[in-house]
Each structure stands twice: as structure tokens, then as C-alpha cells.
Amino acid sequence: MEGNAGGNKRRRVYSVEAKKVAQSAFTRNYVNYLIPALTKIKNQNTTTTSSDFKNVKYEVDMAMAFSAEGFAWSHGLKLKLLQRDEDEAPTITTEKASSNPSLKTSSDEDEKMKSELSSLRKLIPGGEEIVDEEMVTELESYISCLEMQVNVLQCLLSLS
To answer: What confidence tens digit (pLDDT) does each residue in 112-129 have?
Structure first.
């Protein structure tokens, strides 16, 4: 206790749990991207238009994509948003995934699995390019990021 004569020194404690670190990094990146983007939208117009809502949705989605870099779904989401931004045309369809010859078998279980994977591919941005072995990991990260996004948006809403 003698070495602590100057008072209580506080040390910053970092979580060693990887999931907590990833969540805090996501939240920090998400807020750092979204707040300036929303402020810019707010400052551009004095009246609210349907275009403003589209811009807000675009920025919310883009914040999600930039905050979760390293996942196939975030890359797919970015591409979808940038493509929509360029020409408002629909993006890649999931037909490519459903016509994968390696998934075709005559077994009922395999057909059911193929159908379920096809359904998952439609839910995840860029899912048509995710290999089957990575689908569960990508889906888990996507759901986790969606939950964090909802939590951040609820906090921002409660502050306003």
C-alpha cells in the first residue's frame, strides 16, 4: 500500500473476451460513421422528405457494412448499396446459388438442406457468394451485428 501514497490509481481494464471486444469495435465504428452522416442529412434540409428517409436508410445500412468489415455479407451489402446508388437496378439474384451442381442429389434430406441453404442465402447480403461451409458463421455474425445495430439505434433515439 505504500506505493499507492498518491491516492487511488485507476487502471483501464480491457475485456479479454473476443466477442466483447468485437462488439465494442462494431459499436464505435457504427456510431463514428452514422452520426456525421445523419448530421449532414439533417443540415442539408429544413423539411423532411421521402428522399431524406431513403438517405437515412442508405446511411444506416452503409454504417452497418463499414462497421463489420471482414465478413462476406458486409462486402455484399456494400456492393448492393453502391450498385443501387449508381443505377437503382436490382442486384445479383440467388439463382446462381440454387443451380450449384455440387448440391444436387436425389435424397430428400439433401433437397431439404439445399432448400434451406437457398433460403439463408436470400437473407444474407451477398449470400449467393458465400460457400456452404461459411454460411453458419456468416449468418451468426450478421444476426449479431443486426442486434447491435438495433441497440445503437435505440440508444440514439432515446437521446434525441
So the answer is: 888 888 888 888 898 888
